[in-house]
Amino acid sequence: MPKTVVIPPGTGKPLAPYVPGTLADGILYVSGTLPLDAEANVVHVGDATAQTRHVLETIKGVVETAGGTMDDITFNHIFLKDWADYAAINAVYAGYFPGEKPARYCIQCGLVKPEALIEIASVAHLGKSG
């Protein structure tokens, strides 16, 4: 099956061998997204609200580069460092998915960058393409 790599303009170098997104058979897989700047530094250290917004804006950029919208996201995998941030994360998250919500799961775990409080990976259905 053919696949298309999705890399939004201005994307920094990834921390490991992966790309921001891969589109195959109309399904977009967005890699785990941390609150990183173009130099792979964690932004908004200590602020779960701002980090969540940054992560979702980054995901939005990948989805839009692939030709979709946030409404096309059908599943989110959410990883958070501390359950104490759960309410703040959900408040921001709800603003990005105001209508029908995607399916999701949320787990607490250690993240690859200790200053990161959240990581989200997404799946979006964009229709048949790539």
From TrEMBL:
Protein name: 3-aminoacrylate deaminase RutC
Cytoplasm as UniProt keyword: no
UniProt keywords, alphabetically: Hydrolase
Organism this protein belongs to: Methylobacterium adhaesivum
Gene that this polypeptide is encoded by: rutC
Catalytic activity: (Z)-3-aminoacrylate + H2O + H(+) = 3-oxopropanoate + NH4(+)
Family per similarity comment: Belongs to the RutC family.
Repressor among keywords: no
Function summary: Involved in pyrimidine catabolism. Catalyzes the deamination of 3-aminoacrylate to malonic semialdehyde, a reaction that can also occur spontaneously. RutC may facilitate the reaction and modulate the metabolic fitness, rather than catalyzing essential functions.
Classification of source organism: Bacteria, Pseudomonadati, Pseudomonadota, Alphaproteobacteria, Hyphomicrobiales
Gene3D superfamilies registered for this protein in UniProt: RutC-like
